[in-house]
């Protein structure tokens, strides 16, 4: 469980103030909100405790600022929205995910190599093992970076806008992989700007606006309160078929 207690978070000045939030282990937790509301900042408060100027952020009732960098790297795997694209082979990049478990010389063990092969098979990136990452398509590259995150073998997977810049088919592939990871016991915290994806993917929604938490709950709870419509100035209609939810979203006029 991750818990924010009256946490103020920001780079130089706090963007989020007096944040109180509990995120339980298990399932897919999706953070949504207008651009600039603090979604990424909240995630960075977990990954970079030095950004927390007041209050606390805790993991399993222990303050995150008491964890070493290596300990945090074994707890959280993070996929940022943007990152440098290196000119290295796909398998080499995925192998970087094993760094928290390796010594100063980064000596790879048989277990490291086995995990790399396993996550590349899981993400269908084995065929990119000897391809240069900067020469892959956006969707192919995103899956390789996701494989690197999975190679860290963490219980928590933090994803910042993982479908951004991907074509439609690649977005569907990433979403399906996220669902599979949940079934395998991962706890996934992610930000999404696409509300349709969020409503289909989330077990829990965390709605943010103007640097604060507006609501936290199941998709059905959030929809029943019409909160998303007020925050985003939209109209939402839900169609249900075969136990699946299909949202139709249009702008207010």
TrEMBL record:
Domain (ABC transporter): residue spans on this chain: 2-235
Membrane topology listed for this record: Peripheral membrane protein
InterPro entries for this protein: AAA+_ATPase, ABC_transporter-like_ATP-bd, ABC_transporter-like_CS, P-loop_NTPase, Siderophore_ABC-ATPase
Keyword Transport: yes
Keyword Ion transport assigned: yes
CDD domains linked to this entry: ABC_Iron-Siderophores_B12_Hemin
Pfam families: ABC_tran
GO biological process, one term: iron ion transport
PROSITE patterns found in the cross-reference section: ABC_TRANSPORTER_1 (PS00211), ABC_TRANSPORTER_2 (PS50893)
Record keywords, A-Z: ATP-binding, Cell membrane, Ion transport, Iron, Iron transport, Membrane, Nucleotide-binding, Transport
Location(s) in or outside the cell: Cell membrane
Stated name of the protein: Iron complex transport system ATP-binding protein
Organism of derivation: Dielma fastidiosa
């Amino acid at each position: 469980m991750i818990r924010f207690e009256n946490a103020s978070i920001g780079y130089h000045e706090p963007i989020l103030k007096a944040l109180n939030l509990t995120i339980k282990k298990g399932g897919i937790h999706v953070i949504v909100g207008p651009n600039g509301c603090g979604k990424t900042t909240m995630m960075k408060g977990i990954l970079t405790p030095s950004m927390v100027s007041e209050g606390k952020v805790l993991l399993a009732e222990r303050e995150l600022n008491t964890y070493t960098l290596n300990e945090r790297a074994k707890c959280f795997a993070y996929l940022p929205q943007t990152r440098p694209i290196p000119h290295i082979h796909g398998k080499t990049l995925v192998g970087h995910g094993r760094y928290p478990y390796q010594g100063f010389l980064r000596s790879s063990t048989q277990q490291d190599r086995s995990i790399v092969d396993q996550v590349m098979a899981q993400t269908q990136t084995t065929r990119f093992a000897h391809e240069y990452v900067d020469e892959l398509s956006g969707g192919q590259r995103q899956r390789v970076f996701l494989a690197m995150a999975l190679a860290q073998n963490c219980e928590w997977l933090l994803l910042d806008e993982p479908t951004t810049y991907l074509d439609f088919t690649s977005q569907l592939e990433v979403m399906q992989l996220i669902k599979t990871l949940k079934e395998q016991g991962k706890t996934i915290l992610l930000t999404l700007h696409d509300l349709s994806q969020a409503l289909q993917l989330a077990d829990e929604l965390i709605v943010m606006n103007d640097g604060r938490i507006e609501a936290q709950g199941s998709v059905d709870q959030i929809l029943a309160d019409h909160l998303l419509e007020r925050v985003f100035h939209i109209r939402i209609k839900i169609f249900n078929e075969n136990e699946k939810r299909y949202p139709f979203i249009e702008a207010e006029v």
